[in-house]
Amino acid sequence: MRKRPPAEPYRIKSVEPIKLLVPEERLYRLRQANYNVFKLDGSDIYLDLLTDSGTGAMSARQWAALMLGDETYAGARSFRNFEKTVKEIFGKRFLLPCHQGRSAENMVFSTVLKKGQYVLNNTHFDTTRGNTLHKGGIPVDLPCPEADSEESIPFKGNMDVVKLEAFIREHTPEQIAMVIMTITNNSVGGQPVSMSNIHEVSRICRYYRIPFFFDCARFAENAFFIKRDEPGYQNKSIAEITTEMFACCDGAMMSAKKDGLANIGGFIILDDEELFGKLTEMLILIEGFPTYGGLAGRDLEVLSVGLKEVMDYDYLDFRIDQVKYFGEKIKEAGIPIVEPTGGHAVFCDAGQLLPHIPPEQFPGQSLTAAFYVEGGVRVVEIGSLMFGGVDPNTGEKMTARRELVRMALPRRVFTNSHLDYIAATAERIVARKESLRGFEITREPVFLRHFTCDLKALNSESVMVDG
Ligand code: F0G
């Protein structure tokens, strides 16, 4: 019997037209953007898999909640609703709303980080790394050894606890500002972190008295993986698993543009009253009064609903299954992917697909350009272009661990036919992969260069399309 494709536990109520430009037009647009897909206009893109952040579709309940927004400057009812929801789910004493994840990072690192201190992470996401560097800190990644393995094993997002403890022992606790667990671990393929790893890291941090925070943009997806794959959790609810996870940390920074199922929003939660006081001062300086923190009352209402909806088992089951389905299709098309597929995206291994392009010529960028020119699909390089370059603090050369390309799936937005179309595009690219060539950077900023740099094709003929 035919395997049933993943099917949405919701139906479509509102639609938005998207358009595929002709191939020549796509090539022209990409050249105008100096081959940096961040500089393309949304209207020039057919299927946008650049990010799952702030790109999701709201539910009917969320649209309805929007109308209930209380826009009172101080003490808004919408904030009280939001606070109640966040406390119910995460169980921390204090909450500071903010407009997105990186503003939470900015406030936390500006407050706790002293120049030259280390921040340890299973793997820093680019804005977390950028904010750490910007405040004079030194980001250190401690992914588990399995993170780079070709084998399909669960919980590749884990932190290497042996290395963590060794690092702490080689330094004084004062040299380490905090330990962060990114759940799911975006930079190693959206891979989840196991509950036992969270417990271990928590135990080590408590023993050495080092603050332990989560970067929890995709906490619900992580909880789903724990329920599905970690022995002992099959009969626990997503809510119970979430409670157990967050009992292990001292606080968290959240980009609610992912598992908040909202288009904007973020927050910080924590138990430490003194730190809360300092963060509140910072919040008022750069975001807004503590009962809105850079958001409108209606955004807070949308988040209150989104945070509950994202924990629905049927939703998560479909979400994770759709990512898996997409990964299988891309693999069948001939592009090696990171396995198992993670929570929010399929990661193509461009280094393996294009061995004739060395890392310093950005094989991932070559594949990214090919996806746009071939099919109007926007994906993003997560390799030497994003993580390479020169460390602005030490002047040392930084290297990427792998040459990946991320195809992120916005939540509740694309159907399986969209994904089949992308897989067919992948097949056309694979058929001419030897003809693809690398890129060179012609202009770059100091921080987060991939967002704004300009590139030049080493052989512009290679970016052509067959039609
Ligand atoms: N932490 C993680 C793990 C993230 O993936 C992101 C954003 C942030 C923090 C920053 O949050 O965008 O709200 O300021 N990730 C997006 C992405 C941009 O495409 O993966 P933000």
Question: What are the key terms here?
Answer:
Aspartate Aminotransferase, domain 1, binds ligand F0G, 7-stranded mixed β-sheet, alpha/beta, globular, 2 domains, 3-stranded antiparallel β-sheet, 467 residues
Number of strands: 16
Radius of gyration equals 22 Å
Percent of residues in beta strands? 5-15%
Q: Could you say which structural class the secondary elements and strand pairing correspond to?
A: alpha/beta
* Tally of distinct domains: 2
Number of discrete helical segments: 17
Secondary-structure arrangement, i.e. CATH architecture of the largest domain? 3-Layer(aba) Sandwich
The main pleated sheet reads as: 7 strands, mixed
Poorly predicted residue ranges: none
Q: Which word captures the global form?
A: globular
Strand order, main sheet: write it out: 2-8-7-6-5-3-4
Task: Assign the CATH superfamily of the largest domain.
Answer: Type I PLP-dependent aspartate aminotransferase-like (Major domain)
The overall average pLDDT, rounded, is 95
At CATH level 3, the topology of the largest domain is: Aspartate Aminotransferase, domain 2
Q: Ligands bound here? A: ligand F0G
What oligomeric arrangement do these chains adopt? single chain
Cα-to-Cα separation, first versus last residue = 36 Å
CATH secondary-structure class of the largest domain: Alpha Beta
Which range best describes the helical content: under 10%, 10-25%, 25-40%, 40-55%, 55-70% or over 70%? 25-40%
What's this entry about, in short?
Helices cover 40% and strands 14% of the residues. It has 17 helices and 16 strands.
